[in-house]
Amino acid sequence: MSLDRIDIEGTFNFRDIGGSPTSAGELRVGTGKVYRSDGLAQLTDRSRVDIRALGIRTVVDLRDVGERSKLPDALEGLEVEHIELPIFDDHFFPAKQLSREEMAKVAEATGMDLSDRSLSKIYDLMIGHFGPRLAKAVDVVAQRCEGGVVFHCSAGKDRTGVVAAFILTLLGVGRHEILEEYAITSQHLSGGFLENIIRNFSDAGISGNLAETATAAPPELMAKILDSIDAQYAKSGVESYLLEHGMDPASPDRLRGQLLTPADREQTVRD
Questions:
Q1: For the chain, what percent of residues have pLDDT higher than 90?
Q2: Euclidean distance between CA atoms 20 and 186, whole angstroms
Q3: According to the model, what pLDDT value does residue 265 have?
Q4: Rounded CA gap, 151 and 14, in Å?
Q5: What is the mean pLDDT of the chain?
């Protein structure tokens, strides 16, 4: 499993999602095609050279407009398709920060409580209200993974973490490996990232326990999310959830066809 971060200057949590074994023991998730990251606003000339060398042709930005406008991806000179696909559909971090009264009106009209920024509430909101956006993100990765794709949010752990967990689940990766891949984020986001992201989150209007919101990736939280989806969608769990929310039925097979590789071949490449 590729748990180590890739040293891309200006990022803290850039890594390949490949390398994990699957339930079909002879297959593994291939490396060198799909990457996940925290924000790309601090890229340098050196890091853009490194991203080009990875063969990345598509950058998928999962952040809301309020985050993107303050810290746009620094992709100058890279020949990439830049796709803005806000998982929260620009509701959580809008262009203009909502007052408490405006948040209360949104909650009354939609059932979305935007005032509670605790991790558990963020995940409940994401799964409960933005399934179509998550399904679209999986579709985009499936459509473009052959050419190399990176998807990211601000910290590269919540929105990015859920999309990564969904893709790995569709590829047949076991729950233990998925939770390990998710939780390693906490190690990558220690140190200098905390100071940077707390400032960025404050600018974007995130309040409350910023340290926890910014860096914590407790595996039990992801386990709870995946367990709840499995319980509600007993037929095929995450795949059924995504299909119900509009995922292209061809996306799972497209992902498997592009990303699964014989385990012995992958090991040879990695050696």
A1: 61
A2: 19
A3: 63
A4: 10
A5: 86
What tokens does 101 get? 């009264």
* Rounded CA separation 143/235 (Å): 25
The yes-or-no verdict on residue 270 having pLDDT over 50 is no
Is 208's pLDDT higher than 70? no
| pLDDT tops 50 at residue 268 | no
pTM over 0.85: yes
CA 100 to chain centre: 28
Residue 154 corresponds to which amino acid? S
Domain ranges of the chain: 15-252
**Yes or no: domain 15-252 corresponds to CATH 3.90.190.10:** yes
